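Convert to structure. Protein one:
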Amino acid sequence: MDELSHYNQARWEELAQANVEFTQPMLDLTVELARQRWDKEGFIGDAAGKNVLCLAASGGQQSVLFGLLRANVTVFDLAPTQLERDHEAALHYGYPIETLVGDMRDLSAFQTNHFDFVYQAYSINFVPSTESVFAEVARVLRAGGYYHLQWANPFTQSVDDEAWDGETYLLQHPYIDGFEITQYYPHWDVEDGKGGWRKIDSPKEYRHTLGTVLNGLIAQGFRIEHFQEALNSNPDPAPGTWEHFKSIAPPYFTVWSQLVFEGG
């Protein structure tokens, strides 16, 4: 792991110790609820016996899906505390799991053509380039395997959802792939457990443009199967709230792609 890996590892360890919502295992799911929550498009299907890699997706929120569906689950992530929570979820539900500490840009710990699914929740924005990640995912996936990827909407990633001025959310900062947005938003506000808030230094985070992501997947032999935007579910959200922000600027994109030929 390089300097960036170690820096972001320390940041995620601190966030996990602070018990932010992204680091808490889901311990109240049934098989049906898990499928509804994570497989609305029906791509996973019968996962029993399939090899699944939860890539930079630890904390017991993604691995539980595949564990409950009786897949062979591996979680690969920077943060040891987060990986402990994958083990907590596995013990709670009673399925086996394998976890490894590492950087998403280097999957040399895994054999070529080993996985049937690679499931990556919001994490690729924590590296400055998608190229090495996509190349590694294509290598470890079997032909016909699926890659689930979620990342920040690059058009609105630098819009502060809390900066509602009564009329608009201000769009600013360069639309450049690899642009580090952390310089503008260097802290996360985290509940301190005493009814207040404290600031934790943010992991380094970068913009990845729509063209870079989609063309990068295609170049590695992926066929785009489904594209989804995170939309507001509240028909009348209060101005300045997270749901109101989502109604104007979808914060995340999700794409399912299938490996149809060897890229590169």
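Protein two, convert as well:
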Amino acid sequence: MKKVIILSVIVGLMTIIACSKSSTNTNNNTSATVDCNTIDSRFSAVVLPIIQNNCSGGSCHSTGTANGPGPLTNFTQIKAAAASIKTSVESGSMPKNGVLTTAQKNAISCWVSSGAQNN
């Protein structure tokens, strides 16, 4: 009987410990752990080239498309869709035809978090 009680206590403690560990971030959302003070997230130098090379080319978000937020070819369009872009990039659902590096995702996330300035 004592063995059953001890075993039950051990199993219970193991369950509590296992359930209390912080879960891994399965949606690739890195904004909560990134220090944006150390990330170069200037629009013209960093964010715009990422979007031009991964989003606004082809048929995804070029001029005349209606995909998602529509075209992402200039600052005005990109800023208007900034929150949506951040969410899609952090979740890994965008770009559809490629993969962004962690540095690219961080740059976009930090740009949006810092007010999506035209800098």
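The chain has five helices and no strands. The first helix runs from residue 2 to 20.
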